[in-house]
Amino acid sequence: METDFLVIGSGVAGLTYALKMAKHFPDKQVIVITKTSADETNTKYAQGGIAGVWDDENDSYDKHIDDTLIAGDGLCNEKIVEIVVKEGPERIKEIIEYGARFDKDESGEYSLGKEGGHSENRILHHKDVTGLEIERALLNELGKLPNINLIKHCFVIDIITQHHLGYLVTKSTTDITCYGVYVLNVNSNQVEKITSKITLLATGGNGQVYRTTTNPRIATGDGVAMVYRAKGRIENMEFIQFHPTALFESGVSPSFLITEAVRGDGGILRNKDGDAFMEQYDHRKDLAPRDIVARAIDNEMKRTGTEHVFLDCTHMDQKKFIHHFPNINEKCLSIGIDVSKQMIPVAPAAHYSCGGIKTDEMGRTSIKHLYACGECASTGLHGANRLASNSLLEAMVFGERCFLDSLLLIETINKENHLPTELPDWIAKGTTAPKEMILITQTRKELEQIMSDYVGIVRTDVRLRRAMRRLDLLYEETEELYRATKVSPQLCELRNLITVGYLIVKGAEFRKESRGLHYNTDHLSKSELLQNIVL
Predict the structure, then answer these.
(1) DSSP letters along 50-95, please?
(2) Cα-Cα-Cα-Cα dihedral sign, residues 289, 290, 296, 297
């Protein structure tokens, strides 16, 4: 297949870009690829909302910028923070025009929530399923455009670059260029080639590298791993955000998220003795930034020898709770918890990757004709810790910015005709069907355990060294399997997860300080090294 614009991923970032390209070029085809169904994305599971300066009387751009910078702990790119905060409200208006329905109060004004790290109420939300509502509105808009080809159940294996033409490509190569991708058609079990003038990666996060995560099964770090293999730049992978309050259900994955908005409305964290402990850790108590709350919960669990703490909502207005958090209420009831009488057992779970594919202010990666936005990208907005509800905002702002830059790039590409005349087909000669899936499934379990036990909320140099040695072995075994067997989504995801795990550990080893989400007890005091770790 050939196309002008190729989008990998159907979440808010990818669909924002695809819609804008398709509307601007009604005579050109835009291809969107997703490895499962169209709406199975990280966007779908975003509960809390989208942050934006909406109340001009009480809020301001400066306040939102300051909150973001404080949460980012000195590593945010201030220029990017200003861009996202100031351009964000216009992008929110666009999603409302697409039909997104955010909750309103009795007067008809938007009901603005407050979450950890925010100094003002600025979170627009739709009940406790904001991401699902945004995804619905985007897919509905997409259905109106005949020049968008949404291809489901196709797994992107690798980016096509000069490497596939026989040229030596290293990280020092200055003109690495993306020509398209190789994809595994899950229905036909055949590897196909899609060439594109411009490609956008919007492949989401990598929470599945951990045993306990709020991310869906699809969040396997595919985009980050592909760019790293293609010798592109990756940064800040050590900053993995653990959401403080995932519903604790032993052995259940992914974990059900209890949105931060519950604490914003008055929910109180308590330990097994019923004590409200957050005041011991931060003056902002239950609404401190996520890195602080997650570490506090982790410490309480270790101190008391328990697997979870509790979120107390029994004192809250129950009618309001059910109205604002109907899905959380329904989920709790399904496991025998009446939130009006019982506290909710919660524990931290891997939630969001603040690092990723390094991009500039227009979403350009270090690989020519390749953009990245959404959770797979590292734009500089989040720094060492993401401020709650800034992710959907970032995705929409950079979807727009990638679109604007693509308008200029496509003119140049059309003049130069950069695509090689012949790109090689996928070579599967000599490979056989895998004889035992246990080799894949067991290795994935080992990976999750290594990352959870050694590279979690609290780290040490010894744990990181152990993790790296074990990852080296898993990498060697998996690459041997990859060379000998036909590709499958399970094998490709495992390969990508091992790469992501390596990048997280390597970034953590390089950072000789504790900052934001990276907390190493061997390096507690912050150094003066305010820099991004680029791999």
Answers:
(1) EE----TTT--HHHHHHHHHHHTTT-S-HHHHHHHHHHHHHHHHHH
(2) positive
* Residue 527 neighbours by CB distance under 10 Å: 12
Q: What is the pTM of this model?
A: 0.93
CATH class of segment(s) 2-238+354-416: alpha beta
3-state helix, strand, coil in the chain (%, to 5): 40, 20, 45
Q: Choose the catalytic residue: 91, 211, 290, 495.
A: 290
Q: In the chain, what are the domain boundaries?
A: 2-238+354-416, 248-348
pLDDT-based confidence at 331, cuts 50/70/90? very high
Establish whether 211 is a catalytic residue: no
Per-residue model confidence as pLDDT tens digits over 178-215 = 999 999 999 898 999 999 999 999 999 999 999 999 99
Q: What pairs with residue 195 in β-bridges?
A: 2, 180
Higher pLDDT, residue 251 or 364: 364
Task: Tell me how far CA of residue 148 lies from CA of 15, 137, 182, 427, in angstroms.
Answer: 10, 16, 20, 29
Dist CA 492 CA 72 (whole Å): 32
User: What is the CATH architecture of 248-348?
Assistant: Alpha-Beta Complex (3.90)
